[in-house]
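QA checklist item 7 of 12: single-chain prediction sanity check.
[x] sequence parsed
[x] length recorded as 669
[x] structure emitted
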Amino acid sequence: MEFLKLFEPITINRLYIINRIVMPAMALFYTGDYSLTERYRAFYRERAKGGVGLMTIGPVAIDKVGSSPFILGLFEDHQINQFLEFISELHTSTDAKISIQLMHQGRNSSEKTSGMQPIAPSAIPNPLSGEMPREMTGEDIEQVQEAYVKAALRAKAAGFDYVEILAGGSYLIGEFLSPVTNHRTDEYGGSVENRMRFGLEIITRVRNALGSEFPMGIRVSGQDFVEGGNTLAESCRFCIAAEKAGGADAINVTGGWHETNVPQVTSEVPPGAFLYLARAIKGKVGVPVFASNRLGDPELAEKALRSGAADMICWGRPLIADPELPQKVLMGRRQERVPCIGCNQGCIDAIFAGAMVSCTLNPRVGREASTEIREAEVKKRIFVAGGGPAGMEFALIASRRGHQVTLYEKGDKLGGQINLIGPLPGKGVYLEAVKSLELRLQSTEVKIKLNTPLTPEIIEAETPDLLVVATGAKPAELNIPGIDGANVISAWDVLCGDLPNIGKRVVVIGGGATGCETALLVANLGAVPAEIFSFLAYHRALDTVELRGLMYNGGRQVTIIEVAEKPAANVGISTRWALLKNLKLMGATIRTKTKIVDICDEYVRIETGDATESIPVDTVIVATGSVPVHDLAQTARFAKSEILVIGDANRIGKISDAVRAGFDSALLV
């Protein structure tokens, strides 16, 4: 496909932008005192150089009560200079236009970090933190509006090309807009017109301060996706009013609130699922509209622009994963891109945990200034045992540094345990990680030997300078009576697709990530897949109740047994709730604080507290973790080669741990 629209220039209120790619504001937590640290600068510098058209720095706090020291601040005049120098540098060295997003967190702020009680339209506790905000007075409203104006003027003085006001996403302006969080009885509450008043007054005041020729826009939630919240119709009304007020030269449309029970950015969300929100708002306004959420596939982005659904495409996490993505697409190097797989482990989960943002597949994120890939001073012959993510990443980086690398994989394909994740519901995108690493390896001189286990004999005969053991892990064994029965299988065998017969009554031993995900896969085996559901719904073959019955009934009774108090405890906060919700929808039962006593042909005995009971069963699936496989390091220890053990072979971890171990180790050899 030719990318004609994606790289077509656009002008927003006299601001010429070289292409239709936007990097939206994203919390990164790269500071502890509101300052533009070198970590921030290095992160933004790489994305600006990577070819993005409009790059948004932020969110940036307009005051202290609505923020935390972990995000950037522009609420004092002395903070102008840190941006002024950096933006001048970006303007000199890149073609990117630089935007700033101004934000007040409302009840999403925390007294624990700001030192002040949060403020909000009404005194309604934050469902995520439990903190109670103070209802804003008329004086508070005036102070916040003035803070927006002053921050916008500072942004203009700092050299920003564009100012964006965050008016959605369950933050302060969005809280005024929503009847869920706005229970006021004055002129700022009640009717839609009154609830819009606070945001529109900010937009108007900022416009008057900046002048009619300075580009500014808003970011809105297309729909709250919260019960009783704003629908798309109300969002359209607000956007129309913002345009009429003269304060919206463009409208950036995202999905719902953080507290929604509709997944927004996880891997299970179909690419382009929320494009309809931007399309609807674009049909109501006359200014450019940006589309967001799960649009990182360049072909999908091009098609969205060609369809007229939006005028620009937001690439947030895709540009975290690959800062060079625009340039790679433009130069015909798409095969080299590092995809975002929607795992959220290093980005959204990190933010919820108060940690700095990183990336599962790009170990340089947040470390751009200290992880430059340089040519090795001493070139080595290196053998890598294991073609999983750790081994592949090590081979890739070591080869780029000039080492002579041979990668041995005992199986017929690369990818290791990532291949087990691909069959899981909503996880097919994980296989793109394997494909990406394979394609990038093809651009190097790494020799790949499939179906060839690396043996001590080969090592002894070839004597490489360095042996890298990345042989991964294997399922942990359980010592339970009946564990070797004919009806007992491993979760890994299920995920590999090696078992044609799984009974109707299934017990999964282990309620961690693997156990819950495997249980969901099994529960879905007999259910109508999404594409058939869509076909039947489109043609109105069945009513809604019948369709849901087909979608949520796989014909199996699935029970998860977990000894710990919480199921899926090792799943990230941004995806755990969705996994548990999906299990509930599919009728799976989760028994926590429960252990297996023994396994028989037709039942398993379990113990919860002092009570023991039997559960009828046809198939028992064991998903109780894994253990490192590093035998090669032991058997080859007398060889003349230096030995390095990485990834799961060294310590069991996540994909991100394996990739980072491979990357960091390759930088040191």
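[x] summary fact logged: The domain at 10-369 is CATH 3.20.20.70 (TIM Barrel).
[ ] second reviewer sign-off
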